[in-house]
Amino acid sequence: MSDNALQAATKPIEELDSVVVRFAGDSGDGMQLAGTQLTNTSALAGNDVATFPDFPAEIRAPKGTLAGVSGFQVHFASRDIYTPGDLVDVLVAMNPAALSENLRFLQPHGTLIVDEDAFDARGLKLARVESNPLEDGSLDEYQVIRVPLTSLTREAVEGAGVGRKLATRCRNFFAMGLIYWLYGRDLEPTLRWVRHRFRDRPEVRDADVEALRTGWNFGETTEALARSYRVPPAALEPGEYRNITGNQALACGLIAAAELSGKQLFYGSYPITPASDILHELARHKRFGVRTFQAEDEIAAVTSAIGAAYGGAMAVTASSGPGIALKTEAMGLAVMFELPLLVLSVQRGGPSTGLPTKPEQSDLLQVMFGRSGEAPLPVLAASGPTDCFDVVLEAWRIATRLMTPVVVLSDAFVANGAEPWRLPDVAGLEPIEVSHPGASGGQPALPPSLPRASGGKAGGAASSAGTGFRPYARDEWLARPWALPGTPGLMHRIGSLEKQDGTGNVSYDPDNHEHMVKLRAQKVANAVNLIPDLEVTGPESGKLLVLSWGGTLGVCREAVERVRAAGGGAHGNGTGGAHGNGTGGAHGNGTGAVAHAHLRHLNPLPANTGAVLARYERVLVPELNLGQLALLLRARYLVDVVSLGKVRGRPFWVKDVTGVIEEMLA
Amino acid sequence: MNAKARKPTAGDFASDQEIRWCPGCGDFSILAQMKKVLPEIGVAPENLVFVSGIGCSSRFPYYLNTYGVHGIHGRAPAIATGLKTVRPDLQVWVVTGDGDALSIGGNHLMHAMRRNVDIKILLFNNRIYGLTKGQYSPTSLPGHVTRSTPYGSVDAPLHPLSIALGSEATFVARSVDTHTKHLGAVLRRAAAHRGAALVEIYQNCNVYNDGAFEYAKDVKLRSDTLVELEHGQPIVFGAKRDKGIRLNGLAPEVVPLGNGTDASDLLVHDETAAEPTLATVLARMRHPALPEAIGVLRAVERPTFDALVNEQVEAARAREGKGELADLLRAGDTWTVG
Predict the structure, then answer these.
(1) A37: closest chain B residue by CA
(2) What would be the CATH architecture of the domain defined by B10-217+303-311?
(3) What is the reported pLDDT for A76?
């Protein structure tokens, strides 16, 4: 059978510029797979995409219960989009529990596709629903498409020879087929995936293929759907693209950074949601010389990495909030050792075990200050899935240039979300210069003159005749030499006790201690010379600046653009998103009065940060915590920033931010 | 220094740092033996790394002119694991104590041994916390009165070698700080072993737990209180070599030799036994009921963690070729715009 023939739709077609779909079902219903397939297919169709996988921590909570509901939200569009969308245009609910957990995400008059077979007495009881929402009128404001999805799927796959249980598990493919019909998506990429995935299980392959096609055909024949829609390709920058999640991009970035610096990659890690996928990804790439080490605990994960760094590897450890807490002492050790080390923190809801699968940005202060003593280190944050690649390269550049541990923040939203990635030209990636004394290659080029800590008596590594190698000598960046074991003549000891500057000998001298504390701080502060200035989009000064960091970039950018567009201001590209996914509408106050800036570097902050903040009457800082960056900015710049903090286990909605902007401009 | 022109000496391995242990500490004797042994093991000083945690014993690396890492409390085996994994060319030693290794660092010690990371772990056991000024440790005996147990310890002690054998260490040995000849021999054996080696060293803390191992240190007593194990030999001890260890069921017992009992009745030590059962029996012989075993209790061959990790990398490269970054980034479905 020709798929083209199958896909020749006969109903009227309407064009849209963006659509948000959410699949919701039981943890075992394959909703993550359905969402991922729709994402990839849409990306391959040339749309811009953004996703929000929204799933519980439990692997398989009791079937049909509220606790087990798993969702996947996909936004695809014919224009640049920055977020997975606030409310959804189409909600697919595979059972009553999924409906009751997700109906709040469906916009008024939105399309609701339900498996009516699942709305039986048992299903309703499991979801703790008193009356059947399909019959009690509570869904009247939505366009409800009732599909006997379970029974149709079972009938459809009868010929494939799978048992009843497996047949039922093909429901997600039926639902995908229906959505694919609704938006004219090509079945081929998913068919290809199925054929490959189940190449050794032909009966499963055939059943999934049948279910997918039957779902499509159902859309074509059902009278409940009068028309289908098309979302044309987006005008993306020319280039070769792939779809990538934040964690995959982090892993790629780590391998790239190792290659660019001529280093062996050592990744010490302990399984933790939502960081484990980095370990899974890296463990597959041994031919790149990657050594992954699943340690006995978080402490061994980071200390093994420190050992590897001493040995000369590109050493990396990763975790999420609770695991970072366990690494705290060792991160202080890395500060004392002055060795390059990357610590990746994929944040989730806290405190304690908290919300393991949900995004939050509440570990900023932990990584800034959560160590004993004065132990500053550079902190960077990825702004989205594809930025994870670039941020890791930059972090490793800073770590090796300054000989310091560096923290890279991500979060569950950035880590699991996906977007199209324009592949970088590998040959064009700038090498990361690393040198070791005693080895060939010599010292790296010295930077322009930099502020130094007071009272420094440090000389070059080979200075002061007769005293031999000086492991805590300083270069112009205040970095010490990275001398590797195995190098004759450079035998030295590093340790957790305070070091005498230059020699690295144990020292309890008060002058030296104060000097070293200030020197380590100055060294980290010097990173300001390695990072770009804060850039503003919109007016250079004025009423309001929205300042975002990390994974809130997309939402803040979208919010500012919408408000400006609605106000008839500077940028006219505005749309609130098709299908009425828009804002409540900003009124014409202060056209173009709102600007946006995004912080990728949290420590040190870009040199011009204070000056930028001072140019606006008000500064709004939206973050998924109760005001951690706001606290830092207030302390550092004495600016009365307005904090917009939410900790609801999901990213901001654009309207959360536009609402506050409008209030502030009013 | 021109190390190539002449044979290195113990002095070549001394660092320029002032040693800050208490006068009379057993650590001096262990350091002296280590400096004596290092020139004999055929590893250049630049290829040696000593890794430690926190405690009196953990200052050890500062006093050797090799590479060294003085880490944080309990974590030395983990630091050493990372180092050895990326640098299998180095010989890596871990120096630790009973508190560092068995209390705060118990987890890392256990896992380094079961993975068989090629590191040599010297556990200085003095049954006390010295650097924190005299609290009881995981090896302190029941009833031990210390500053933190003024009414006597109610904790049951750990036996370090039981932990090592239970954790599948491939080399397990015991010696005594001032039994210099024996200690030197054990250190040489540990240096030559490929895999995780654990050496328990009875070490006297003359400030906070003086005399804890007097029975094992006193040259007049020790021939009756210790048995020096020799591979393949019946276990005989005593100043006159007139006693031996025999198994009675699974329990070891002391038997006098003569009167119809001879060496053929005794337990024969086999350090290479695949199962650590007999080594465990020997490790758990406790003074004063029985003489305590010193020497090499177990020495078996098993692939090391670091070798296996690196073999996987090499095998993947041989099979799939060295990775190309552009291919990695282009994984999965891609599409072209423009």
Answers:
(1) B333
(2) 3-Layer(aba) Sandwich (3.40)
(3) 97
